[in-house]
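Renewal narrative, Specific Aim 1. Our central claim is that a sequence can be written position by position from structural information alone. The example that follows is taken directly from our test logs and has not been curated for this report. It begins with the structure tokens describing the chain, in the order in which they were read.
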């Protein structure tokens, strides 16, 4: 599997730090992907998957009808999407679906609950993280890499 092209960066102010940064580059990216996936899975998906119809009222309140369709889809996206992103399997589509869910939460907090950017801040950061992996995919520390394929 070919590694993606990395664009050159400006020289470091302290060149000696390159010896620290270079080996940690892939580790940092892997850590971000694994943590984002695990947190989505445990903090959001796990509770919803155990009661997939529990969010019917919420999703319908946001205008997503029928709620009996959207609530289980939300649960599955957060639960399975989190697992897939964490292990790095079908990383791009799982991250893209997760990003869409998080963009809806941006709307929910910013517009629907009128909390503004301060209320949507966490959702914006989450959406940006999943956008990164939707575009970047996984790296060599992933199931995608073990299979020798990425979508």
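The sequence written for that structure reads:
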């Amino acid at each position: 599997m070919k590694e993606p092209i990395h664009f050159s960066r400006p020289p470091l102010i302290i060149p000696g730090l390159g010896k620290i940064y270079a080996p940690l580059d892939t580790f940092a990216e892997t850590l971000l992907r694994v943590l984002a996936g695990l947190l989505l899975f445990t903090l959001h998906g796990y509770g919803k998957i155990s009661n997939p119809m529990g969010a019917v009222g919420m999703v319908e309140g946001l205008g997503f009808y029928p709620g009996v369709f959207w609530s289980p889809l939300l649960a599955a996206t957060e639960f399975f999407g989190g697992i897939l992103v964490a292990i790095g399997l079908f990383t791009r589509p799982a991250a893209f679906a997760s990003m869409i869910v998080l963009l809806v939460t941006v709307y929910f907090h910013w517009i629907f609950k009128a909390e503004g950017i301060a209320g949507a801040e966490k959702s914006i950061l989450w959406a940006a993280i999943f956008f990164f992996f939707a575009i970047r995919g996984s790296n060599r520390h992933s199931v995608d890499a073990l299979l020798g394929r990425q979508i």
